[in-house]
């Protein structure tokens, strides 16, 4: 089992990681793997953007102020990709942080590509 | 690390969002003109009704043009919800005032998208927008000319009947039209 995992991560590049989770990119498959909340889930271009959208849409402040729900209540996220996360408020904050870092890194990666390998002179 | 984001889509998230907002605006314009066509028809302004039917169709084409561009560039085109369409007008003139206001707002909107394209050097989309810039010249011209008929002809007596007859004849064919 561990052997399989090491082998798998060899093909992955870490995009961004926090204490709560890590996002890897697989160049070969052209997709991303998110290691979060105890599972490793594969996202392609379209579903990663859908996940970003559904997480960014959550109004965290409003949830914090909402006294009718206890913070332990878990929430369901269906991100149109055969997977759903059951997350509590803290996990939502953590996933948002992870995604923000990830998209910042992907943007940086694009800038690097533009400046270094896409130079047209 | 491969730049998958860029490989999959030419558009940045911001530009894609702006284009989707524009798609919604064009859908709204199309629905607005259709409501105007209905009102004019109900009130006996047949030529104006025809004119607005045609305008409604054109706006739908604008919507699709933008929609297909977003898809062609690898983006996510969103079919918009359209609501809040004004169905009733107090006067014949008000219809044309609203039409011109709407076209001016659309021109401004395209200018904003072009400015955003410039800022992030998306010259591909910038060039695509040229078609719309020129189209807005014509759209604003026609809407302005239509409203001017109310001054030139006047609404008294058979004035409105006369205005209605002229609306359909407005053409943007001055020297600068082709350029
Ligand atoms: Fe339009
Ligand atoms: Fe228009």
Automatic annotation (TrEMBL), chain A:
The lineage of its organism: Bacteria, Pseudomonadati, Bacteroidota, Sphingobacteriia, Sphingobacteriales. This is Uncharacterized protein. It comes from Mucilaginibacter aquatilis.
TrEMBL record, chain B:
The keyword Cytoplasm applies. Fe cation binds at residues 26, 59, 62, 103, 136. It is an enzyme of class 1 (oxidoreductase). It comes from the Bacteria. This is Ferritin. Residues 9-154 form the Ferritin-like diiron domain. GO terms for biological process: intracellular iron ion homeostasis; iron ion transport. One of its GO terms (cellular component) is cytoplasm. Belongs to the ferritin family. Prokaryotic subfamily. It holds the Pfam family Ferritin. It is found in: Cytoplasm. Signal peptide: none annotated. It catalyses: 4 Fe(2+) + O2 + 6 H2O = 4 iron(III) oxide-hydroxide + 12 H(+). Gene3D superfamilies: 1.20.1260.10. Keywords: Cytoplasm, Iron, Iron storage, Metal-binding, Oxidoreductase. One of its GO terms (molecular function) is oxidoreductase activity.
């Amino acid at each position: 089992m561990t052997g399989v995992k090491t082998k798998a991560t060899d093909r992955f590049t870490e995009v961004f990681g926090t204490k709560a989770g890590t996002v890897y990119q697989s160049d070969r498959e052209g997709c991303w793997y998110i290691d979060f909340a105890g599972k490793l889930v594969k996202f392609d271009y379209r579903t990663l953007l859908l996940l970003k959208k559904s997480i960014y849409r959550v109004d965290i402040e409003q949830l914090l102020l909402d006294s009718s729900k206890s913070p332990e209540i878990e929430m369901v996220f269906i991100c149109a990709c055969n997977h759903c996360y059951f997350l509590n408020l803290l996990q939502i904050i953590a996933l948002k942080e992870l995604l923000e870092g990830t998209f910042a890194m992907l943007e940086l990666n694009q800038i690097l590509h533009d400046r270094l390998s896409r130079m047209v002179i | 690390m491969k730049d998958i984001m860029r490989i999959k889509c030419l558009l940045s998230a911001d530009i894609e969002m702006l284009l989707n907002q524009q798609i919604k605006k064009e859908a709204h314009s199309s629905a607005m003109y259709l409501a105007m066509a209905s009102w004019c028809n109900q009130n006996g302004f047949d030529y104006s009704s025809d004119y607005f039917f045609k305008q409604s169709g054109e706006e739908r084409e604008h919507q699709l043009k933008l929609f297909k561009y977003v898809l062609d560039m690898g983006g996510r085109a969103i079919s918009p919800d359209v609501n809040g369409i004004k169905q009733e007008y107090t006067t014949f003139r008000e219809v044309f005032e609203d039409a011109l206001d709407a076209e001016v707002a659309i021109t401004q909107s395209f200018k904003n998208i072009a400015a955003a394209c410039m800022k992030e050097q998306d010259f591909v989309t910038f060039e695509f927008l040229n078609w719309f810039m020129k189209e807005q010249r014509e759209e604003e011209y026609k809407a302005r000319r239509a409203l001017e008929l109310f001054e030139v002809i006047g609404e008294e007596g058979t004035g409105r009947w006369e205005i209605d007859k002229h609306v359909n004849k407005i053409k943007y064919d001055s020297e600068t039209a082709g350029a």
